[in-house]
Amino acid sequence: MFVSDIFTTAPTDERSAAEMATFALLDELGIPYERVDNDPAGPMEDCDIVSEKLGSEIRKSSLIHNAEKTQYYLVMMPAHKQFNTKAFQEKMECSRPSFASEEDMMALLGVTPGTASIPCLMHDKEGKVKLVIDREIANDEWFASNACDNRSHFRIKTNDLLMKFCPAIGHRAKLLRM
Q1: Domain residues of the chain, as ranges?
Q2: Is pTM, for the whole model, over 0.85?
Q3: What top-level class would CATH report for the domain 17-176?
Q4: How confident is the model at residue 43, as a pLDDT?
């Protein structure tokens, strides 16, 4: 799998609007980042290769909804940690949590499966999606993720993510031990 050298500036070639918006917001907020371009990253094993290049684990993200589809959660977890449905249900008081459909993901975050990440919450102007981050991630120095496209990944300081980026996009993270 191809992974580029590390860049510290936004891409200058043609990219998706969502990817460019991610780097524009990081620049606007003065958040330093390192990024790479890569072949499309599918399973977490592909992300392991990107993680090695960035020196920080790419986080797994899932869009979850309750049984009634009245509440949605973007859940960020360590790459190889399994989602514990029962624990999530109890801690979030969420009836029968399930993975959201491709249609819901597109409607709420503007992306398809495999590309959901915290920057995608920029599309959630109405605040329909709650951000839930595994506490293990919050305790790490670095946060790495895709930039709304599985061909582009970046890393920033976790503190910048929680204290600058998330508030700028109108989302506060709920930290849970999962």
Answers
A1: 17-176
A2: yes
A3: alpha beta
A4: 81
